[in-house]
UniProtKB/TrEMBL annotation:
Domain named DJ-1/PfpI: residues: 2-157
Lineage top rank: taxon: Bacteria
GO biological-process terms attached to the record: regulation of DNA-templated transcription
Signal peptide range in chain numbering: none
Protein name: AraC family transcriptional regulator
InterPro entries per record: Class_I_gatase-like, DJ-1/PfpI, INH-QAR
PANTHER family given in the database record: ARAC-FAMILY TRANSCRIPTIONAL REGULATOR, DJ-1_PFPI DOMAIN-CONTAINING PROTEIN
Amino acid sequence: MQVAVVTFDGFNELDSFIASALVNRCRKDGLEAFITTPTPRVTSMNGVEVTGQRPLEFVAEADAVLIGSGVKTRDVVADDRLISRLPLDPARQLIGAQCSGALVLARLGLLAGMPACTDRTSRPFVEACDVTVLDAPFHAEGNIATAGGCLASQYLATWVITRTLGQDAARAVLDYVAPVGENQETVERALRAVHMSEGALH
């Protein structure tokens, strides 16, 4: 099972790297994430240059697609050619978006009739797409999920792991990466955020 972590120029490192790193702790179980970029190299909002592991066309074959946010997301959704390279299919893929990534899902028509989560800066732009924004870190309906706030990227990863490998696998990953002494609290918070969303589990 393969996960495309879509990472555009101007990306937020916390979004792409946290989600990718957590999912990749499940490699031995057959779940693997790849930083997926529209160009061979992209530069983060803080100047970190990264070489993509997969080209953007990889999203068509991925089992799950997570769209990270960044400072150039509004440019992304205004670029018809770039958007056309994202043939996402919620009938067969898990599709998640982080913060301003919700704008990409809205542009693709994937948020029709459902609310979404995003960050404070992106909120007015998501609302301008006629999408109701929730005061919550995570929301999922069926195969589509959104997360709001950089550190909510752990919830997107938890959702993907839970949906593909089960709750025990997600629990093991969260327990390993949790701050020492806060293991149970960290695990339960993430699982609670994911499970509270109707349709987040099979």
